[in-house]
Amino acid sequence: DVKVTQSSRYLVKRTGEKVFLECVQDMDHENMFWYRQDPGLGLRLIYFSYDVKMKEKGDIPEGYSVSREKKERFSLILESASTNQTSMYLCASIQTGTGAQVQYFGAGTRLSVL
Amino acid sequence: GDSVTQMEGPVTLSEEAFLTINCTYTATGYPSLFWYVQYPGEGLQLLLKATKADDKGSNKGFEATYRKETTSFHLEKGSVQVSDSAVYFCALTPTQGGSEKLVFGKGTKLTVNP
């Protein structure tokens, strides 16, 4: 069975802390994504990676960075957490190729920054 | 750029009622279209998809038809159940391969009452 695992379901951090959100997929997928989900705004793409050590900015990369040292793992980093980064964070992965490929999502990490 | 517009919720129905959630898109070329569903406390999962004009995607009693002439992909179900309560997202991915990025609508929350 396909699996995307996010390391934490809930996190509470303080303003200014450095925060790491981890995501692991077991499907040998090349592409991985980080989204944030906010009420009334839907899902917005923060960063994505199409290969190890490769990354591209999404629609809202400010305040975030990412790391992909191994194919199965994609980390989202909040260098200095702020209250406006309180949100639900979703990781997804997909295999490249032709046709309508399906993205597989983790269960999400709900981050609260106090 | 590409975009997806779906009807705003929340939508509240009684069990066995008919459901329609409207979705229209703007895209160049021939995108693939998707409906994803997010049950409470979970990540997103694919509900159905369609890859070309006049294709009908179907799953769990839900259906949506890819209408190129009206740039629409409306979600329908003839008789909803309490277990269908969730947030539904319409999404597209561009025709050309590559990053396989998804563009999401803002989501529609459905509540089905017994």
What does this structure look like?
The complex is a heterodimer of chains A (114) and B (114). Chain A has 114 residues and is mainly beta. Helices cover 0% and strands 56% of the residues of chain A. In chain A, the strands form two sheets. In chain A, strands 2, 4, 5, 6, 9, 10 and 11 form a seven-stranded mixed beta sheet that branches. Chain A has a four-stranded antiparallel beta sheet with strand order 1-3-8-7, with no helix packed on it. The N and C termini of chain A lie far apart (37 Å). Chain B is mainly β and 114 residues long. In chain B, the strands form three sheets. In chain B, strands 2, 5, 6, 10, 11 and 12 form a six-stranded mixed beta sheet that branches. Chain B has a four-stranded antiparallel beta sheet with strand order 3-9-8-7, with no helix packed on it. In chain B, a hairpin with a 2-residue loop joins β7 and β8. Chain B is globular, with a radius of gyration of 14 Å. Chains A and B meet through β5 and β9 of A and β5 and β6 of B.
Alpha-beta classification of chain A: mainly beta
What is the strand tally of chain B? 12
Per DSSP, what share of the residues of chain B sits in E-state strands of 2 or more residues?
over 45%
Number of strands of chain A: 11
**Which H/E pattern describes the elements of chain A?**
EEEEEEEEEEE
Using only C-alpha atoms, the radius of gyration of chain B works out to 14 Å
Radius of gyration of chain A: 13 Å
Provide the residue-averaged pLDDT of chain A.
92
Strand content of chain A: over 45%
Largest beta sheet of chain B, briefly? 6 strands, mixed
Helix content of chain B: under 10%
Oligomer: heterodimer
The percent of residues in helical segments of chain A reads: under 10%
Which protein chains make the most extensive interface, counting residues with beta carbons within 8 Å of the other chain's beta carbons? Answer: A-B, 27 and 24 residues
Ranges of chain B with pLDDT <50 over ≥5 residues? none
